[in-house]
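ARCHIVE CARD
Drawer: 12
Card no.: 0347
Subject: one protein chain, sequence and derived structure
Cross-reference: see card 0346
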Amino acid sequence: MNFELSEDEKIALAAELKRTISEDRYPLSPRISTLHAILNKLEPRPAREPLPPPKVYAPPRAGRWRRRGS
């Protein structure tokens, strides 16, 4: 079933869902998970920027460090 909602109705519904979710005593309950899913359909989250590639660290070269006392 697909509802045709105006922008004002979507904003009001999203605000009510956010209030209900934030004030709920059990935030990990199945009911709240369902409300989160509905809210994500009304207000999809923007896509995240990809993380930069990890830096490559080379091991130190063998002759760089000297032992003390030898």
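Annotation on reverse: Helices lie at 7-23, 30-42. The mean pLDDT is 87.
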